[in-house]
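for the recovery benchmark. tokens below, seq after
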């Protein structure tokens, strides 16, 4: 009986303790940061299970989203009811277009008794809901959070760019429809409104075309995939898949409910080898072709002089437009080699027929591509749509109405804006999310290359200063791209996207003039709580309080005068000779700035120890990245001198060339010799010639070296 009484008392005390805990409170310090937040000191609005969402006509789905989001976070679903009058309690969703000067703008007014979300349109209401969702407290408790308080405030917000996009490539590695829907949910969470869906490639055709059913029977599958970064080795695993038109219509509806437009891309006239494998007569040589198993750029492209090929892409585009209601249709235009066209009788006859001539800027084949792109632009425009093309379509006579997607830096976008084209900025330098997020690449999942940390995304300026204000108005938006050559799973896609997507969202929505990266990082922490809630995979590099210092043990060579008899390649000189003995170990990619690169010439370094020293051991560090033509050294020699003029050899060692079976990475090479006393030490590191099984056979391999140590 006494035990029962004690348990009863303990339960009462526990309940009292629970009731005394502060109620969780929302914070409006979110991503993207709202433009205007005016707090006041009135008591907060209490969000609880009996709170009702009232919605105007046309906003029922938005009300349901809000109820679902609250259920995800606080574990209760609010009732949704049509707005009858001026309800004084609950959350009210309204349209008020006359009160706003921008599409997608919204205002949230929070009083002790009511929350009102007004939007310039339904999208504005939706983004107001996203702000409320991201403001809610996420606790670590396993228990439901029955109530939470919203500080009373007025929040006004609008977007700087009307086009806020993300791209996904399911062609190199296929992503199922459920994964694509989750990707769309990720975009919605980050206030994005355009989903660029890349549907055709050399490595796989992903959309059903009813007039050409073999495209998905043959072109959607490859018989294997290259191993690593374009080695001579292949697996034998059949890979592929495609989306039916009915599935894509369902996806369009799914995205539209979240105020996201899907922009389909049919990449032409290059990147078409999957189509050529299906219909060889559409190419210049007639084949045979295969759905490509390699990565990169294939020289086999559509035959521009073949009317049947032109009819093919016209038919494809018309079926694509039947499925996707998007105002924008992406027709590619990138990376189209002209090798086949130069030798193709049909292409050369078409050039003659059209009276095309080359000039000092572009070849006649470049202008032939312009002819192809403009023909397809007319097909799209006849349906009341507009084409988007990669910035290569500026190389010739581009359609006046074409939108330019600037990916090879920002220069293409600058040129296009000056010519009066609308522009979407998507430079690989800042917005290619298939690049490494850390320079510690050997502890990262595989990537195509490059180095793009969150900081670099966050610092991007979408409006080039060299443009006038009138020209800057042609920059309609910003987009990041994810290509999947080395991204084989959707979990990996998520890891590459986030939290870089947070930095992108800040650029797209606010484009802040003054940027505070540390404050941004703290807001990212809040976003990762949502990622955890939805089981999204994401990278955590920016939260690491202990970054690697990459130092080496101090040795006889550290910070001593060092000269090079041959200079490194200009683009791989970085900090110069002093980088070889600065005490910091090379890490990351060859172009990360941490390595010196040599091709043909040896690395021939002379180190002045400034006084005679006893040494018997040399160690240096080199990078091996065989697909990038970077191999291990072939030989290391060590020479010493007392006066810096006359040298004698004290050690030499040959190094076997790496094979494709050997892993790439960072390696240390050591040479020991009999102890010797000397002031000057010369270290000579030679490279190999690329082997027969390499695409570059016959050329000298690159050597990338850092940190020469003497003991």
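predicted aa per position
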């Amino acid at each position: 009986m006494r035990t029962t009484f004690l348990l009863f008392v303990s339960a009462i005390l526990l309940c009292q303790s629970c009731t005394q805990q502060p109620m969780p409170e929302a914070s409006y310090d979110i991503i993207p940061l709202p433009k205007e937040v005016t707090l006041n000191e009135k008591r907060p609005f209490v969000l609880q299970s009996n709170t009702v969402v009232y919605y105007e006509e046309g906003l029922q789905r938005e009300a349901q989203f809000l109820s679902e989001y609250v259920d995800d976070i606080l574990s209760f679903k609010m009732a949704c009811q049509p707005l009858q009058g001026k309800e004084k309690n609950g959350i009210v969703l309204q349209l008020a277009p006359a009160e706003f000067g921008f599409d997608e703008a919204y205002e949230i007014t929070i009083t002790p008794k009511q929350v009102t979300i007004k939007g310039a349109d339904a999208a504005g209401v939706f983004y107001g809901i996203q702000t409320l969702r991201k403001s809610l407290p996420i606790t670590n408790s396993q228990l439901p959070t029955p109530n939470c308080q919203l500080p009373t405030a007025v929040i006004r917000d609008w977007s700087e760019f009307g086009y806020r996009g993300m791209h996904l490539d399911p062609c190199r590695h296929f992503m199922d429809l459920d994964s694509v829907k989750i990707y769309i949910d990720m975009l919605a969470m980050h206030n994005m409104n355009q989903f660029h869906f890349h549907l055709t490639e050399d490595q796989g055709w992903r959309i059903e075309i009813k007039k050409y059913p073999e495209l998905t029977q043959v072109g959607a599958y490859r018989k294997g995939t290259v191993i690593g970064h374009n080695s001579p080795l292949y697996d034998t695993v059949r890979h592929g898949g495609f989306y039916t038109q009915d599935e894509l219509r369902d996806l369009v509806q799914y995205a539209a409910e979240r105020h996201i437009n899907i922009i389909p891309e049919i990449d032409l006239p290059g990147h078409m080898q999957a189509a050529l494998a299906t219909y060889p007569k559409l190419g210049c040589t007639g084949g045979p072709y295969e759905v490509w198993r390699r990565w990169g750029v294939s020289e086999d492209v559509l035959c521009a002089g073949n009317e049947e090929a032109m009819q093919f892409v016209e038919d494809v585009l018309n079926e694509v437009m039947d499925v996707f209601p998007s105002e924008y249709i992406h027709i590619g235009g990138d990376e189209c080699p002209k090798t086949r066209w130069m030798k193709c009788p049909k292409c050369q006859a078409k050039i003659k027929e059209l009276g095309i001539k080359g000039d000092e800027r572009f070849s006649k084949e470049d202008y032939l591509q312009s002819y192809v792109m403009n023909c397809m632009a007319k097909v799209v425009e006849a349906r009341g749509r507009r084409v988007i093309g990669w910035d290569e379509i500026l190389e010739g006579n581009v359609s006046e109405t074409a939108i330019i997607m600037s990916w090879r830096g920002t220069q293409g976008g600058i040129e296009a804006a000056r010519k009066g084209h609308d522009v979407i900025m998507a430079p690989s330098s800042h917005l290619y999310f298939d690049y490494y997020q850390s320079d510690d690449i050997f502890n990262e999942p595989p990537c195509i290359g490059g180095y793009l940390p969150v900081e670099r995304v966050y610092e991007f300026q979408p409006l080039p200063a060299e443009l006038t204000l009138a020209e800057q108005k042609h920059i309609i938006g910003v987009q990041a791209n994810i290509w999947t050559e080395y991204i084989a799973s959707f979990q990996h896609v998520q890891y590459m996207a986030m939290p870089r997507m947070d930095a992108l969202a800040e650029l797209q929505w606010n484009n802040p003039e003054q940027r505070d990266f540390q404050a941004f990082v703290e807001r990212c922490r809040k976003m990762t709580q949502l990622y955890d809630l939805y089981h999204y995979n994401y990278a955590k590099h920016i939260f690491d309080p202990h970054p690697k210092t990459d130092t080496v043990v101090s040795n006889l060579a550290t910070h001593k005068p060092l000269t090079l008899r041959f200079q490194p390649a200009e683009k791989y000189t970085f900090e110069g000779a002093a980088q070889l003995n600065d005490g910091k170990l090379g890490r990351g990619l060859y172009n990360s700035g941490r390595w010196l690169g040599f091709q043909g010439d040896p690395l021939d370094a002379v180190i002045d120890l400034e006084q005679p020293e006893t040494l018997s051991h040399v160690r240096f560090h080199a990078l091996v990245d065989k697909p990038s033509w970077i191999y291990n050294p072939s030989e290391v020699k060590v020479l010493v001198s007392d006066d810096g003029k006359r040298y004698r050899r004290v050690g030499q060692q040959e190094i076997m060339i790496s094979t494709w079976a050997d892993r790439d990475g960072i390696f240390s090479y050591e040479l020991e010799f009999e102890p010797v006393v000397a002031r000057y030490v010369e270290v000579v590191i030679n490279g190999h010639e690329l082997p027969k099984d390499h695409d570059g056979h016959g050329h000298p391999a690159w050597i990338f070296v850092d940190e020469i140590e003497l003991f």
